[in-house]
Amino acid sequence: MSPEIKSESHSKWRLRIHEIIFEADTPAGKAFDVLLIGSIILSVIVVMLDSVSEIRGNYGPLLHNIEWFFTILFTIEYILRLVCVGRPLRYVRSFYGVVDLLAILPTYSSFFFPASHYLTVIRVLRVLRVFRILKLAHYVGESRLLMQAMRASGRKILVFLIAIVTLVIIFGSLMYVIEGEENGFTSIPRSIYWAIVTMTTVGYGDISPKTNVGQAVASIIMIMGYGIIAVPTGIVTVGISQAYQQQKISTQACPECGVDGHDMDAKHCKFCGADLYPEGHRELI
Q1: For the segment 41-57, what is each residue's pLDDT rounded down to a tens digit?
Q2: What average pLDDT does range 168-177 have in this prediction?
Q3: Is pLDDT above 90 for 171?
Q4: CATH code, domain carrying 51
Q5: What's the pLDDT band for 75 if we cut at 50, 70, 90?
Q6: Is the CB of residue 279 less than 8 Å from the CB of residue 267?
Q7: Going by fewer Cβ within 10 Å, which terminus of the chain is more open, N or C?
């Protein structure tokens, strides 16, 4: 086989992988996204269960093996993302590239450096990856009629709720590390309960931070809590007023840097300038 044929075959293979991993509009891409979303959710549940001492005592080895399974799975996915983009370093430095790396590093670090066990709570950042899979552009669709505008607002509110869930998981995990069991934060789920109570400004007072750092984090959560009512109201109002003006966003990911969010009629990536539809990619789609 000549070098030219080998190069062309490798290019088509790379574009095919890119289509499956980055493009949610293709059948293979949708199947991949469903599988990945399920894996992300299950892996986050495993991290949360592992923080409960009773469950960890009874099912510790099983949870450990499941965690390694997901870590290896996400490692393979991360490598494939680097292989199928034309500029892997740009993807590594992107927001979701960093999140992908943080999602797998703690497990390896806890294996080679047992003292870093508490870094495993960083693995809850995997829930942030759901935003990439769902493609935020799907939740900001435009509309010309009132009912369509309301449906679009409903989707945005769903994204807002996902963001709230993400925040309470992250803040709850953070407080679990900062305060610890001696201050009542006995597990990640209980710490998440405290984060929800604090963010909604309910403030039962059954759990409260004792350290200065914990109290500083609690103050941030309290301030953020005021936006819980304001944000959905603003989303609905803006959704109705801009129903006739919104611009559609394409979910086409750049084959070079892996970033999406381009205009529907865009031909080149607005981040790196690469062709969004190279010749080989057109043949595949």
Answers
A1: 888 888 888 888 899 89
A2: 92
A3: yes
A4: 1.20.120.350
A5: very high
A6: no
A7: N
CA–CA separation, 28 vs 21, rounded Å?
A: 8
Q: Which of 55, 11, 1 is nearest to 190 (CA)?
A: 55
Q: According to the model, what pLDDT value does residue 146 have?
A: 60
Question: Is position 148 within any domain?
Answer: no
Residue 3 exposure: Cα atoms within 13 Å on the Cβ side: 0
For 40, the token pair is: 């992300």
DSSP assignment string, 30-54: HHHHHHHHHHHHHHHHHHHHHTSHH
Q: What is the pTM of this model?
A: 0.64
Domain count, the chain: 1
| Spatial CA neighbour of 185 closest among 163, 161, 225, 217 | 217
The number of helices, as runs of H, and strands, as runs of E, in the chain is: 11, 2
